[in-house]
Amino acid sequence: MLKRAAVVGLGGQATEDHLPGLADCQFAELVAVCDTDPARAATRAKTHAVPGYTDLKAMLEREQPDFVITAVPHHAGREVIETCAAAGVHVMKEKPFATGPEEAAELVELCARTGIELMVTVQRRFHPIYTAALQLLEQIGTPYLVEGRYTFHCPDPAAGWRGQAKLAGGGCLADMGYHLIDLLIWYLGLPDRVLAHTSACAMPGADYDAEDTALVHLAYDSGLYGSLLISRSAGPKAERLTVTGPRGAVVVERGAVRRLDPAGQMVESLIREPAWPSAAAAQIDCFCRVLDGTRVNPSGPNAHLAHAAFLAAAYASQVTSLPVDPKEFRA
Hints:
A hairpin with a 2-residue loop joins strand 11 and strand 12. The protein has helices at 12-24, 38-48, 56-63, 77-86, 101-114, 128-136, 165-168, 177-188, 278-292, 305-320, and strands spanning 3-8, 28-34, 52-53, 67-70, 90-94, 118-121, 145-151, 193-199, 213-219, 225-231, 238-245, 248-253, 256-260, 266-271. The strands form 2 sheets. Strands 8-9-10-7-11-12-13-14 form an 8-stranded mixed β-sheet. Helix 4 (77-86) packs parallel to helix 5 (101-114). By secondary structure, it is α/β, with parallel strands linked by helices. InterPro entries: Gfo/Idh/MocA-like_OxRdtase_N, Gfo/Idh/MocA_oxidoreduct, GFO_IDH_MocA-like_dom, NAD(P)-bd_dom_sf.
């Protein structure tokens, strides 16, 4: 039997990823949509031929979904999770998991206490390019260098709630940068030290304090070191993570992964075309299997305590200009 799914928050993430993912997945069906904007809710409800709501509690009571996919502003995420947990409804949550380590720990406790499953939507873990990269890393020896870059040009990085650190829980590092941080932790584990520098200077004179650009230096006790450059103001659009070891390097991008020899010559590659559409559907189907008890949750609340700790350490380092150990922020 198909799982009943509802989508809460009908902005770009929902319309580009989650709604198409539901249309293409095997084990779930869309039964309702919800947004605080009545016009947006009505438009999406008509498009997808399902009921539209502006009140989450009313939707949960009337439609009784098995789970919701929520893609709301970061500061509103906790309330959605709490409302769903009170109704016994499971949650797929758009990243980030939480706006800080304290909230992350409290949400872990809430999910455990109420018995709901929660999966954070880090779609790269469900894309074959990124899982192939994990296998190729075994061929390069013990890594000693990691370099990441995720950049694109947003015409107005100061606009809306994303420009306000209090609402967003941070800027580009906590938002788009979450995907790069997730890859780093997935492939290499949580660093032992981070040193971060951030800026909100792309729009001179604009009133915003959530960083549009961040550079984070990384160090592991194993001798591995490197950096991540993240910007939502600096083009061209690029997404890349390179991990180097004594036997070569692995370079993973959105649609391709390459293994290089120590001189930088390509040994092998894998290209996926089209690069992206299947990831959202694969993640939804995985979550349905989690709810059926046939698969372990690969992106649950406990796994994302490390991400919250990384971000907290980076922002603390920005204030002090000193390296910070993320493990100091683990709940």
